[in-house]
Specification:
The complex is a heterodimer. By secondary structure, chain A is of the alpha/beta class. Chain A has five helices and 15 strands. In chain A, α2 runs parallel beside α3. Chain B contains twelve helices and eight strands. Chain B has one domain: P-loop containing nucleotide triphosphate hydrolases (Rossmann fold), CATH 3.40.50. At the A-B interface, loops of A face α7 of B.
């Protein structure tokens, strides 16, 4: 009986105004957790588990869930047709994930000329000190900043971040790509201008626009990291 | 122990072979012991430009496949005691030689010669890899046209991956009147794109073609502008600091007056 009592506390269901929060104890074994989750969800809670669609946040505390384990929990919760997992919240990540996050957040500094046929691809932001010649390509999962002239192809937000920008001292690219969007250069560049410009996806027009670098802080305030 | 310099360009027809022949000849004129190596297997030309075609008995592939000794395949120049040519084979193709074998031959030649000038074939495939394998330095030849500059850029990128000094640049076939009128890329523009050190500018000179057809490198005739340019390049290779003669110098007296008066 004491065992059964303890089991009761491994899974706590809380209601908030945004939906349900499922608190999963992080000290018991995973088997106990699964067992209790099954029990709790199969109990009749009246309209709570049978009513309209409710979003669920699963909080796992200091327990690390493998993909297989979180899949199992997803499956159990998914048995209730009106429950929809919004997200998992956890206090812990693996070292590999942490390193990945660090890479995404860092600015890679590279000093070279990216020549025709060369591809420079980085994770996170790219700060290139040098030119990108025609036929050269630079890619970054974050933003791209070129201290030099950009005459080749630049692809920022290459893993899908549409908020990413491309800035260059001299902006004369053959092509600009941000996330899944491509913008070709005009067939002829006028002689002057194109200095210190920045490209971004405009939400209103849903295409890549180029503007003076000084307006970027208005369009992408999240670039600041103070 | 000499040094091996590869002459390359990426694009064909920009004047690699002409440049090789003339730099080799100019270095020989300065009394250096020089060996020219043609690596354009299957499409050899260097022997023709040097007027040595009829003396070929063995070639590069014969050396690689050990049908002869290296010194047996070397052809002594008609004009200089200190200039030799290792011709390419005409009946084989580029794949009959491997980069390691090239390396061995070049390092063997470096023992005996002050300069080994390697004439590279066009392209970035096997032939290029072979030519670059044994080289210590490289010279990239380009013409003042976009396609040639683009290819030179590609080649410089590939050369930077090799363990050798940063390549030097020769802009070949510059036509003064076109560059002045802005209808052609000018030398400064090319240097700013390629971002490597300029070692020479050679003007377009019909005497080069005439000389080539006679099997006599232009560097032998002292009066042509191209010849002077090639000799100057050779002097820069030898370490002398020779100022680059710019196109500006050739402006006449009247055009200078016009510039002063703001008429151009």
């Amino acid at each position: 009986m004491a065992m059964a009592q303890k089991l009761q506390h491994n899974v706590t269901i809380k209601g908030t105004k945004d939906g349900l929060v499922l608190l999963l104890d992080d000290l018991c074994s995973f088997e106990h957790l699964v067992e209790e989750l099954n029990d709790k969800l199969s109990d009749d809670h009246g309209q709570l588990l049978n009513g309209p669609l409710i979003s669920v946040i699963v909080k796992t505390g200091n327990r690390y869930l493998t993909d297989q384990q979180s899949g199992l929990i997803r499956e159990i919760i998914g048995q209730k047709k009106n429950l929809e997992i919004k997200r998992f919240e956890t206090n812990v990540i693996t070292v590999a994930e942490a390193e990945e996050m660090k890479k995404e957040a860092q600015i890679m500094r590279v000093s070279k000329v990216v020549r025709s046929g060369q591809v420079l691809s980085v994770q996170g932001d790219l700060l290139l000190i040098g030119d990108v010649n025609p036929g050269g390509t630079i890619m970054a999962t974050g933003n791209i900043f070129v201290l030099g002239s950009l005459k080749g192809i630049a692809h920022s937000g290459s893993s899908g971040n549409r908020e990413a920008v491309i800035a260059a001292s001299v902006m004369k690219p053959t092509q600009l790509r941000i996330a899944d969007m491509i913008n070709r250069a005009p067939d002829h560049y006028p002689e002057h201008g194109h200095e210190m410009e920045c490209a971004f996806i405009s939400d209103e027009e849903d295409q890549i626009l180029i503007d003076r670098i000084s307006i970027v802080h208005k369009i992408r305030p999240e670039l600041n990291r103070l | 122990m000499g040094e091996a310099i590869v002459i390359t360009s990426g694009k064909g027809g920009v004047g690699k072979t002409t440049t090789s022949a003339n730099i080799g000849t100019s270095l020989a004129l300065s009394g250096k012991k020089v060996c020219l190596v043609d690596t354009d297997i299957g499409l050899r030309n260097l022997d023709v430009l040097m007027g040595l075609e009829n003396r070929i008995i063995y070639d590069l592939v014969d050396v690689v496949e050990e049908r002869c000794k290296l010194h047996q395949a070397l052809i002594k120049d008609k004009r200089f005691e200190c200039l030799f040519l290792l011709p390419a084979a005409q009946t084989k193709d580029k794949s009959s030689v491997q980069p390691e074998q090239m390396k061995k031959i070049i390092s063997e030649l470096k023992q005996d010669y002050d300069y080994v000038i390697i004439d590279c074939p066009a392209g970035i495939e096997q032939g290029f890899k072979n030519a670059v394998a044994g080289a210590d330095k490289s010279i990239v030849v380009t013409n003042p046209e976009i396609s040639s500059v683009r290819d030179a850029d590609r080649i410089i990128g590939l050369l930077e991956q090799e363990e050798m000094e940063a390549p030097k640049l020769i802009v070949n076939r510059v036509r003064n009147h076109l560059a002045k009128s802005g209808d052609m890329l000018d030398v400064d523009e090319i240097v700013s794109i390629l971002a490597i050190e300029l070692i020479g500018v050679v003007v377009d000179d019909e005497n080069v073609i005439k000389a080539a057809n006679k099997g006599e490198p232009i560097a032998m005739s002292p009066n042509s502008k191209a010849s002077i340019a090639y000799r100057n390049i050779a002097r820069r290779i030898l370490g002398e600091s020779v100022p680059l003669s710019t196109i500006e110098e050739e402006k006449g007296f009247f055009s200078k007056i016009k510039t002063l008066l703001g008429m151009r």
